[in-house]
Amino acid sequence: MTSSYDGSVVVWDLESGAQVERLVGHQADVWGIAFSPDGRQVATAGVDTTARVWELFYPRFAVREGPERDVRAADFSPDGAHLVTVDHSRQARLWQTEGVRLVAALGDADGATFAPDGQHVATLSDGEIHLWDPLTGAPRATLPAPGARMLSYSPDRAFLHAASGSSGAMIEVESGERVESPGFADTQWCFAQGGRRFASVGEDHVVRIWDPRTGALLAALDKLGAAEPRYVRCSPDGDRIATTSSQEEGVRIWDAETSTLVATCNKGLGVIRGLAFSPDSARLMATHDSLGAYVWEPDTCRLLGRYEPDDQNPRTGNGLFSPDEARIALISDRVVRILHGETYELLQDLDGHDDTVRRLWFSADGARLTTLSGERSANGTSSAASS
Known about the structure:
Blueprint: E1 2-3, E2 8-12, E3 19-24, E4 30-35, E5 41-46, E6 50-55, E7 60-65, E8 71-76, E9 82-87, E10 91-96, E11 101-108, E12 111-114, E13 121-125, E14 128-132, E15 139-144, E16 150-153, E17 159-163, E18 168-172, E19 178-180, E20 188-192, E21 197-201, E22 206-210, E23 217-223, E24 232-234, E25 240-244, E26 251-255, E27 261-265, E28 272-277, E29 284-288, E30 292-297, E31 302-307, E32 319-321, E33 327-332, E34 335-340, E35 346-351, E36 357-362, E37 369-373
Parallel strand pairs: 1-37
Antiparallel strand pairs: 1-2, 2-3, 4-5, 5-6, 6-7, 8-9, 9-10, 10-11, 12-13, 13-14, 14-15, 16-17, 17-18, 18-19, 20-21, 21-22, 22-23, 24-25, 25-26, 26-27, 28-29, 29-30, 30-31, 32-33, 33-34, 34-35, 36-37
């Protein structure tokens, strides 16, 4: 599925590559998209002051008029029964997806997200984190988070990571205890070891491992090259950390528990455009602007697959494995290339954008794909393998 700045949303069938349906209803730009966990519904947030929920198998929508400003973000609960939205005037709302019924207004918010287990809705507002009942919207707790502009849960839901451009903290959900550390303010980061480790890239381009519970520095792994972009990615099982280094050192794989170097993949590859682990953590993909994509076995750097761009689509941006690992999606300017998940053969091109594609999301069943193009990207919650 793709969205555009003309207010339309296109549903793609990944088996055939055909456009199944164009969902027309928004009167202005579509800013944010979120799939329901079962892949049957999608929420779209638009500048036209509405958030819409679409039933993909029967193209229809239910609309709730938003506030006086455009809706910028939407997030489904893990069971898909509820949706939280935030608009440009900083108003958060909790909805029941069936019938798109408003459950509660959650007040001012710079961001909102559901806990991984669905037990809370968290909103961030004016230096405070507010926890809400996910079914009723009733307030549960208020936690201090001075200066924070970004909010995300650790995988084990034990901590809320709150950060701004200059400071960051881990806040224990149960006690509200706040732990500060320089690494918690870094913009490139991921959780490892189920939330027991926090890896980040500092302004000095050094990758460091921190203890989220104490803020203690556990290890300094790598000094990345000065050339942008620079990445740190944690495997979904939490056991490995991948980093891009200098153009001569390629991609390094680290043991998340011991902080020891496991392998170095493809020295001299050059500037990496994207890193992504497969959902089972058994594969690591690196994308390069002109060389395409490499897929390795992380512990040995054994080359498992290779994608080479062609003359019609010479550039390669970020890439992503589908949740069922049956497909790989690669950005190539305005086109999204779909590869077979095992043979790495090109299956089809999704060509429907007028501007460069910036971000990709698969539905939970891997059958549908959402893309966003243009200079602006959709808002959403952070994840260890986001690309």
